[in-house]
Amino acid sequence: MEPVGEKAVRASFVNCSKGEASRINLPVGMAELPWEHLDFMGWRDPGAPDRSYLVVPRDGGLTGVTLRVPSGVRRSFVKTTVCSVCVTGHPGSGVSLLAARRAGPSGRQGNTVGTYLCADLACSLYVRGRKKSQLAGQYEETLPPEERVARMMRNLDGFLDKVLEGDK
Prior knowledge:
The structure is a single chain. A hairpin with a 6-residue loop joins strand 4 (80-82) and strand 5. 25% of the residues lie in helices and 24% in strands. Strands 1-2-3 form a 3-stranded antiparallel beta sheet. The chain contains 5 helices and 7 strands; from the N terminus they run ααββββββαβαα. The protein is α+β, with helices and mostly antiparallel strands.
């Protein structure tokens, strides 16, 4: 992913108002992110741990979505969970169910779509082997890294398509 600035990030959000986008807490040290190893930018809001954000290069621009941890979701600290985007297995709470308000009129009516994502939103680093899951006895992935990246982006595009369906 190419480095992006604050203005581009804030303008990319499709499922919140411009006012909400202007108040999003951007990641600290954004300029120092490992851009060459990222396929998308994801971060948790340090001031509101139930909020997360994704900014994805897509169709020649950026698509940003706001995410929330749904209330009442019970987490197991003993079960293994798998990220729906990068297919990385994690122990316990290493994967979170995150819900995105749909774009457009559907989202304004309260409709959401959810997916299970790495809790730290570091999927790009996991598929490249730059970050390791804490899961003991991990399975050995047989796909080469470039195919894992392609699979991750297909999965992420599928999720973003569902978010954007509300705009139609």
